[in-house]
Design goal:
Elements (H helix, E strand, L loop, with lengths): L5 H11 L3 E8 L4 E7 L1 H6 L11 H4 L2 H17 L3 E7 L6 E13 L2 E16 L6 H10 L4 E5 L5 E4 L1 H7 L3 H4 L10 H17 L3 E8 L7 E11 L5 E9 L1 H15 L9 H18 L3 E8 L2 H8 L1 H18 L5 E4 L4 E7 L3 H16 L2 E4 L2 E3 L3 E8 L7 H18 L13 E3 L3
Parallel strand pairs: 14-17
Antiparallel strand pairs: 1-2, 1-5, 3-4, 4-5, 6-7, 6-10, 8-9, 9-10, 11-13, 11-16, 12-13, 14-15
Helix pairs in contact: 11-12, 12-13
Length: 433
Amino acid sequence: MKTSSSDTLLPMLIEAVSEGVFIARVDPESDSFILEEMNNYLQELFSFIESPIGLTVQHILSARHARWVQRQLSQVVESGESVALNIATDIFSKDKQQVSVRLMPVLKEGKVSRIIGTVQLLSRSIPQQEFSKKDRYLMALEHAPYGVCFVDDKLYPTMINRELCRWLDASLSTLVNKPIHEMICEDDRLVFAKALSKVISCGRSYHDIEIQLSTASDAPTWVAASMSCINEEDGKRIAIIQFVDITRRKNDEAELLRCATVDHLTDVSNRMVFEKSLRTALAKARRYNRPGAVLYIDLNDFKGINDTYGHKAGDKVLTEVGQVLKQVFRETDTVSRIGGDEFAVIMEEASLQEAQWKAGLVEQAVTDLNVVAHDKLVKVGVSLGVQAFDGSDELTADAIIEAADKAMYDHKSQSKSAKQQPQGYTPKIQIDA
């Protein structure tokens, strides 16, 4: 059986499709694109040009159209990704026509060397006077750099623009067949649904409701949603929802909040968070008559560790103690570093006996830490104090801190010279000093 070469097959293939096909070569010297192939379908559309093959875009099209085409082709070269467009243009006739264009890159040695394009007319010519404001409006929404969605009274989307499809990483056919609330993160669905219900039922408008979209990505996509209502000719109401991407701002806000509330070395809360959380815990204890406790924790002879082994070893000790505290206490407890070698913990809804038991766990876990610096074992000791509170006492936050601090110093003075030996195997943490 005789086979055809690729040079023979290519013209046959591009003639076989029912839309216009062209191949443009990237010319790096002139920063332009040279037309290499064009099928008969497209040649008929360009019947006003005698022989377009071998010409650049600038020679084939008018200056206005050439600038637009050049910009689209350059975008494909820069991104290395396909581009699909639905546009209304007068590029083929005096009147505007709805045209579907797809541009696909061809890579050679990792660079875009050619672009394959397809062109398909979607409608008859549209005289300029018939190209209504509504058409222009819908086209502007379709190509807007923000998300747009129309929702009917059954809460199903009737129109979703390209940008919103891209954010949701789903096709239009998939999205229009499920309720709009499924596009929203579960934590924000209730707020979103209540607002949308009032928009459709009462004609309300909302602006900049900050919610998260439900996407396949682990990273959240934050948007500010604005909703309004319009009445259609049949009397039904539809909602227009606009989504503006605010992910970068939310990430920046989260990072600023973290810097303001988290100790950079130990990754536990800082003193500001501790003091605010203690005031809140006291108010809740008085309101609901629930017990709680504050633990005050101080490392023994931490200055000696810094002086003997260096600040790098001291920082490692603080980091490991912070990790111990995060492991021992509950997620609902507030663990904070409140000074150089001082930590404090707020335990809400905990009895004095439970707080004292946790203090014993901390003391043992810190004593069991093995930190090595300059090939020497750095042993760490800790002193703790506990002060309970509940809704029946009149202790202020400052009084509780002072009492816990005093209890800690009492413990330090009683066991200043006592050092527990490690029990069982514990891994050594190497310091590169």
